[in-house]
């Protein structure tokens, strides 16, 4: 089953993008290419509270998956 992401509503596309950013930031943290403050800085840039909560949930998810404390 394939899904065309371009047909999703804008809020769903943004949620996917925030999830990708969370994954990348946690990976950088694991590889010692970033500091934990970068996650806080990225979260501070997100204005919408629901999007910020989604981003932080994704960060927690990827920290568990990647074994980052």
Automatic annotation (TrEMBL):
It comes from the Bacteria. Signal peptide: none annotated. One of its GO terms (molecular function) is DNA binding. Pfam families: DUF3283 (PF11686). InterPro entries: DUF3283, PolIII_theta_sf. One of its GO terms (biological process) is DNA replication. This is Pyridoxamine 5-phosphate oxidase.
């Amino acid at each position: 089953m394939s899904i065309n992401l371009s047909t999703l509503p804008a809020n769903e596309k943004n949620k996917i993008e925030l999830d990708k950013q969370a994954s990348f930031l946690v990976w950088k943290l694991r590889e010692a290419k970033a500091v934990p403050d970068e996650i806080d800085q990225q979260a501070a840039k997100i204005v919408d509270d629901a999007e910020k909560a989604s981003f932080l949930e994704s960060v927690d998810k990827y920290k568990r998956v990647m074994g980052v404390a």
